[in-house]
Amino acid sequence: MPLTDDQLAEIESQRQSGATTRRATVPALEDRLYRAIPLLDHGFIRVIDYMGDDGAIVQAARVSYGRGTRRVSEDAGLIRYLMRHRHSTPFEMCEIKFHVKLPIFVARQWIRHRMANVNEYSARYSVMDREFYIPAPEQLAAQSAANRQGRGDTLQGEEAAHVLALLRDDAARNYDHYAWMLNEAPDGTAVDGSRQGLARELARMNLTLNAYTQWYWKTDLHNLFHFCALRADAHAQYEIRVYADAILDTVKDWVPAAYAAFADYRLGAVTFSAQMLAVLRRLLAGEAVAQAGSGLSKREWGEMMGALGREKA
Amino acid sequence: MPLTDDQLAEIESQRQSGATTRRATVPALEDRLYRAIPLLDHGFIRVIDYMGDDGAIVQAARVSYGRGTRRVSEDAGLIRYLMRHRHSTPFEMCEIKFHVKLPIFVARQWIRHRMANVNEYSARYSVMDREFYIPAPEQLAAQSAANRQGRGDTLQGEEAAHVLALLRDDAARNYDHYAWMLNEAPDGTAVDGSRQGLARELARMNLTLNAYTQWYWKTDLHNLFHFCALRADAHAQYEIRVYADAILDTVKDWVPAAYAAFADYRLGAVTFSAQMLAVLRRLLAGEAVAQAGSGLSKREWGEMMGALGREKA
Amino acid sequence: MPLTDDQLAEIESQRQSGATTRRATVPALEDRLYRAIPLLDHGFIRVIDYMGDDGAIVQAARVSYGRGTRRVSEDAGLIRYLMRHRHSTPFEMCEIKFHVKLPIFVARQWIRHRMANVNEYSARYSVMDREFYIPAPEQLAAQSAANRQGRGDTLQGEEAAHVLALLRDDAARNYDHYAWMLNEAPDGTAVDGSRQGLARELARMNLTLNAYTQWYWKTDLHNLFHFCALRADAHAQYEIRVYADAILDTVKDWVPAAYAAFADYRLGAVTFSAQMLAVLRRLLAGEAVAQAGSGLSKREWGEMMGALGREKA
Amino acid sequence: MPLTDDQLAEIESQRQSGATTRRATVPALEDRLYRAIPLLDHGFIRVIDYMGDDGAIVQAARVSYGRGTRRVSEDAGLIRYLMRHRHSTPFEMCEIKFHVKLPIFVARQWIRHRMANVNEYSARYSVMDREFYIPAPEQLAAQSAANRQGRGDTLQGEEAAHVLALLRDDAARNYDHYAWMLNEAPDGTAVDGSRQGLARELARMNLTLNAYTQWYWKTDLHNLFHFCALRADAHAQYEIRVYADAILDTVKDWVPAAYAAFADYRLGAVTFSAQMLAVLRRLLAGEAVAQAGSGLSKREWGEMMGALGREKA
User: Fold this and answer.
1) How far apart are the CA of A189 and the nearest CA of chain B, in angstroms?
2) Confidence at B187, pLDDT banded by 50, 70, 90
């Protein structure tokens, strides 16, 4: 369980607070507010705040004086139009803030998305928790033979057991040495009075990349969709994909019309290159096209046939 | 008055809506929500939505599980510390959205602040309103003799009258020709059935730069402060300064502790260069320093003496 | 001709300068440097500086110590892979800077691309040139009946003549009044000694939106491609499209491999939504699908059939 | 030594390349191109490419047709004016690209500067080098008692020795286990044919935060100055400060006039708050002011007296 009793109590107390607001409010998201969705072995995401709803997208696109909404179906139609024609700015009018707990190596991928606001827990200033990510056995994958940055079969037997033991022991030992170097009791006094203790900003370097960190992360809906398009994708590393999937699940509750448009025009959509389009026209004309004479590489041919639900041969 | 009766009714109806929320809520800002603050002759700003409050800054800086707040005085102290040491990311955790109506030449300065989300009323798609900014007589200033991008004395008499007449007549005539070229009745039919009407995206080029446009503008508190530091400054053009001042006034209601820190450490603060610091040390040592031997240019010397409340001689 | 003799001489003198450099250098782009490509009636773009070439994309993607290039074909293959899989950061490693002269209403669309560096000629500080965009007769289009933000047929006869006369006369008159209000001779003295002259920052508001402005604009290749994907598109307004087309033409000389990948995977590519993919599978299975039972709107059906080169019926 | 002989040879071969260019060229920076400046125990920075010089700042500020430069002294004056009045966009017209090798915990601070382009060596795709940062003995500092995120005295004797041994052993052991889990010989075959080897994207999580990574990093001069103002500051962690210092040293060769302005108006400048200004005026009026009645906190008082070169009592 990623949260202590004290933390759970703080969260529940915050959930009790209620105020009246004139702002756009989404009951389904209010219901989720503050509560942690557990991810991986010690991580979570929880929604801390949000601004706007489906109506806010429409309101901004129309630069309207009131709520901007007309009939629900008309609004959904406009949102689909905006998504299809890549009008990104109306989606930027919705904003969401998460508290995220995640392994450092995942945080390092995540932070590459620059269009977001981030406050990370500071290991210069504070002591890190003794928590590290250890993959579940079914996630312990071999290097993919086909793809230099993918996963292959799951490790088995002794090799799997040994890998898990190494990950566990190394993370634990390194943390214990980190704590020893800090020489700092919970009340801030020295554990061993004969030692000074190493500065926090230095001691942290002994931690492993599967140590958990946490941050407040805030972004707008357009950039959130972009993050999810890349990180909820099958090519993304599993450990960040679980976060992207949980975020998408939240978005579905928050802005259902925008989510549906995103699902149709991005997640479920496929882009065909100029060469693929040429192949498609030949196929539709009834021609039998093979990879050899297609102008596509084997990999592209495979991707295209996969998208069309056809045999790759 | 910048708003029609229909628009006022839409706004009032939106103000009637109320919902319960678990989010951070600021009563003083709720009270302002949606209502237009008139600016210049036809412009306004109105707050459409907001996320966060003073507590949200503290909560993010501490990456805390609950509200983050301790005693109000402790929070204010942390906020002052963050502002003083230029920790910008906690201030990015608050977000605000405005609906702004403003002359196009002001919009062109404003848009140079890139760290914001904007949806502008589209003159490709819609017909512009017949409204233009005409300066009040006391704002009709001559070119400054001292400063190539500033204003000098107010124009008087015939010259002032003629300038106002030109601005008024040219804007009105150009708008009327714009409307004639469009050839479009309010219901979308042609005014003159024998003419096709020019495309909106072309006709708009006949409008003057004092025509009013409007947009939804959303940014975070850090970037809002940066905008205000530059645009509420005495060197900013009056016509954008009135917007920055009205925004600051709103910020004061929204995040009073952050506003106070901004007022002390930015608005009311002065930066002394390395050379100015050297002069300051000599002055404090009781030395009589004159501009000539100060290492400062006349302009810098004047700025420094002004900041210290001293004679410039 | 958009340039004076003095400006042409300045440009030619800059072109004479030559230095030896260890940096990546592209002869075809060197050949274009500084020279203005005329666009519209008084506008232009000219390349002022650039950083990187096709090899720099590869070098960064591999984080290599040397030039990064292997065989040209291998590099091109990597660039195509990066483009296909939307790896944007290697393309950000190339940077280009343009000097652009363009009508203000075009500048207002252009500036919405925030990921760029811009220095615009300041009408607060300087006097604007007496130049405005007047569309060529074949560009004088009526409002599109089908598309609220597009163009229809070209205006003809008297209507066309009258529109052109209005655009010309209004721009000229407004400029002349601008100049009168400034009351400023080329040497900075007053034209009429009995008048003070209106401040430049105010007088400019009398100009029309087809007045020409100019700026230095610098961006990276990834954002340049994004700009071109939106602005060289058939849906973009003609007056900005001519700039995007000229930029693309320059890019072709600068980074030919990246340009080719962009042409295949963006410009010439089509994205099919989830619903369109379903239709595609049915078509490939030999089914006769009509718009009615397709799950697509008429507009989407039309777009899809257009992309496939089929009858829309 | 951070570079292998092969890498040094690649670098030297790149340095031999020379081409003629019409672009702004800075001989002092050309001389540094590609060569690594060693930092910490295994890190470095090296300049890979650059765009612009002091003249390019002036050229953009003036939106000029030619080189933009007049007399050198006039240009330097304009650059100082731009820096003093926080005109940031002309400085954005210069761009520089570095190849940087740095410990991961430093990379994590660095990446928080979002306004830059980055390509990092991918541990999903490639195998990391066996290199980790071990502080020099004089950098092995205790936690500061006065400042929660600073360093105090240097550790001595046994404690120091033990800390160094722990850092060294843990990093080495974790790397060796990382290599064992990968089970991958330099030629890509398995070391132990009976094992599959863990996917690279998983094995990397066993590395410590002092492992070295590397990236290509590109930014403009304005954002570079901002980075240096924060990271070359006395409050920055030593391990990132050495990089910021080395960058500043490079900037001095590249754009000497801009560097001088930055040194005077940022690095060597001090900002006094509204309250500090009030104290300053009282001091200059000859009043004896003590912290107690100053309106400043002890910390602020100390900072102010330090800036003025006065006793803090």
Assistant:
1) 21
2) confident
C199 vs B151, B174, B184: nearest CB: B151
Contact B43, B2 (CB under 8 A): yes
Give pLDDT, residue D17.
Answer: 85
What length does chain B have?
313
Of the candidates B24, B93, B220, which has its C-beta nearest A119's C-beta? B93
Residues of A in contact with C283 (CB under 8 A): 284
Out of 1.20.1290.10, 2.60.40.10, 3.40.50.720, 3.30.1360.170, select the CATH number for domain A5-133+210-267.
Answer: 3.30.1360.170
Q: Which pLDDT does position A313 carry in this prediction?
A: 53
The residue ranges of DSSP E strands in D40-108, in sequence order, are 43-51, 95-103
What top-level class would CATH report for the domain D5-133+211-267? Answer: alpha beta
A139 touches B109 (CB < 8 A): no
The predicted structure's pLDDT at residue B313: 53
Q: How far is CA A164 from CA A114, A135, A140, A161, A168, in A?
A: 33, 8, 8, 5, 6
Residue D309 to chain B, least CA–CA distance (Å):
7
D124 annotated active-site = no
From edge to edge, which strands make up the β-sheet containing B43-51?
B37-39, B43-51, B95-103, B212-220, B117-120
Token pair belonging to D209 = 């935060």
- Options 3.30.1360.170, 1.10.3430.10, 3.20.20.80, 3.30.70.2470; CATH for C1-133+212-269 is 3.30.1360.170
Complex confidence, ipTM: 0.95
Contact in structure between C149 and B126 (CB atoms under 8 Å): no
Q: What is the pLDDT of residues B294-303, one digit of tens each?
A: 999 998 999 8
Identity at A34, one-letter amino acid code: Y
- Tell me the chain A residues in contact with residue D140 when contact means C-beta distances shorter than 8 Å: 198, 202
Cα dihedral B250, B251, B252, B253 sign: positive
- Contact present, D103 and D43 (Cβ < 8 Å): yes
pLDDT under 70: residue ranges of chain C: 1, 67-71, 312-313
pLDDT in tens, B236-273: 999 999 999 999 999 999 999 999 999 999 999 999 99
